[in-house]
Amino acid sequence: MSDEIEIDLDDLQRRMEGALASLRTEFASLRTGRASASMLEPVMVEAYGQKTPINQVGTVNVPEPRMVTINVWDKSMVQAVEKAIRESGLGINPQLNGTIIMLPIPELNEERRRELSKVAAQYAEHARVAVRNVRRDGMDQLKKALNDGMSEDDNKIWHDEVQSLTDKAIGAIDAALENKQEEIMQV
């Protein structure tokens, strides 16, 4: 490979891994019938005049497999946290016990499992698109390098490297989707 003209494969790989990390975060927010503190990460509470994540207004615990509890630190924030959870679209009905909000996780029915599986597939497709966009950026860099004097042979080697990174990232996304769908459909 040419020493003068190089493509930053580490940057491309880092960006592709970022798409996969983002996908895993989105998957964590999908409810699978098991309690998880991460399912509350996307929920924002109107606190002190601004939107705040739940974990910054209280302690989130998972005391048992089908229960999440939130111990709200400021008693005046309990109603705001409860409202944020009700309006989040998680499909969970909060129960108040003083400053502790209990979230019993209901069993998922077959129809809801199929819906969640489709949502997971959409998340995976967004991640694939992000990886393909990174690949396109890499290929654009290769075209520019070819115009700047990179040899055809070197360009082909770099092209294969970028494609290999893309295939690996897409494979990881597909594997993560398969695992998540399996977890969702598990009764």
TrEMBL record:
SUPFAM superfamilies: Ribosome recycling factor, RRF. GO terms for cellular component: cytosol. Keywords: Cytoplasm, Protein biosynthesis. Signal peptide: none annotated. Residues 23-185 form the Ribosome recycling factor domain. The keyword Protein biosynthesis applies. GO terms for molecular function: ribosomal large subunit binding. It is found in: Cytoplasm. Its main location: cytoplasm. GO terms for biological process: cytoplasmic translational termination. Responsible for the release of ribosomes from messenger RNA at the termination of protein biosynthesis. May increase the efficiency of translation by recycling ribosomes from one round of translation to another. Belongs to the RRF family. This is Ribosome-recycling factor. It comes from Profundibacter amoris. The lineage of its organism: Bacteria, Pseudomonadati, Pseudomonadota, Alphaproteobacteria, Rhodobacterales. The gene is frr.
